[in-house]
Write a structure and sequence with these properties.
The protein has 5 helices and 3 strands. With about 170 residues, it is mostly helical. It is elongated, with a radius of gyration of 28 Å.
Length: about 170
């Protein structure tokens, strides 16, 4: 009798799990495909390129200082040479600090620009998942599904639903 109950419960659990449809979404793909996401990407690229140009100017100043130092190093007094080396080192440290500061600014800007989109995406993913009869939906990069008997990529459906509900300006 115990054997029969165990087999029955095992059979029922296998049957129930076989009918589960797993949904998959690629948030990164969605963010780069929707109109609003493309706009965010353009803003980030512009800001990145502006900051990159500023850093390039500083790099050129450092290179020029290094070249000048090379030319003058033989004729400079010891104190002047040490002072010039220190100036170049300080310029390099400032450039490094500025680079890290710009990276933080770009990352914060990205988070601030993407947060409202992600907040609008969550309910849409729920809607698309329900309309596709999906029991669970996973984000591909966060929890990659190695195997599921029944799975469906909902990314394209979410992109269409988002652009329909929130057309880009």
């Amino acid at each position: 009798m115990k054997y029969f109950i165990a087999m029955l419960s095992l059979t029922l659990s296998l049957t129930a799990s076989a009918n589960v449809l797993v949904g998959l979404v690629d948030i990164q793909k969605i963010m780069t495909s929707i109109g609003e996401g493309k706009s965010v990407q353009k803003q980030l690229e512009k800001s990145f390129n502006d900051k990159k140009a500023l850093l390039k100017k500083d790099e050129e100043k450092i290179k020029k200082s290094q070249e000048d130092y090379k030319k003058q190093s033989m004729v400079l007094a010891e104190a002047a040479r040490v002072n010039k080396e220190r100036e170049i080192q300080e310029m390099m440290m400032k450039l490094q600090n500025k680079t890290m500061e710009y990276q933080r600014e770009i990352q914060k800007m990205e988070q601030d620009l993407k947060k409202p989109i992600l907040e609008k995406l969550r309910p849409l993913i729920d809607e698309v998942s329900k309309s596709n009869g999906v029991a669970m939906t996973f984000e591909l990069s966060a929890a990659p599904i190695v195997y599921a008997e029944s799975k469906k990529d909902l990314s394209e459906d979410v992109i269409k639903a988002y652009d329909k509900k929130y057309p880009s300006r």
